[in-house]
């Protein structure tokens, strides 16, 4: 527990200095303060650390469903003259794009962790503390 308290103090000091950090458990169970670009959180309202294989697998699954639904929709829409059937493949493609985008973010985060020697976060768990500012620093106006 003493290590956890030290990690919390260090995290709070880094946040007070203006850094955006996320306090989460590692695979070994220790607390670690991750930079924003070292960890990927799937979901906005209940952020959990999602594994790369999960996002990649489902991106491929929804991509194939998109192609299948698009082919069926085009075949039936041409014969019936209904364009509303293209809504399903559009929804599948949007969801597949989101999953592929998150998988790419996690791929980059994993590369940064390996480059910096940062431990892997525990997947499937919510971080203990998320200290992010809004809007992101790259979009904030100076002044």
Key terms:
elongated; two-stranded antiparallel ribbon; 143 residues; 52% helix; three-stranded antiparallel β-sheet; mainly alpha; 3 helices
Explain what the structure shows.
This protein is mainly alpha-helical. It has one domain (2-138). It has helices at 2-16, 52-80, 87-116; strands at residues 21-25, 31-35, 41-42, 48-49, 129-131. The longest helix is centred in the last third of the chain and has 30 residues, at 87-116. The radius of gyration is 20 Å and the shape is elongated. The mean pLDDT is 77.
E-strand count: 5
Number of helices: 3
Q: Give a short account of the largest sheet.
A: 3 strands, antiparallel
Could you report the average pLDDT, rounded to the nearest whole number? Answer: 77
Overall helicity: 40-55%
Question: Could you give the topology of this structure?
Answer:
Blueprint: H1 2-16, E1 21-25, E2 31-35, E3 41-42, E4 48-49, H2 52-80, H3 87-116, E5 129-131
Antiparallel strand pairs: 1-2, 1-5, 3-4
Outline of the structure:
The chain has 143 residues and is mainly alpha-helical.
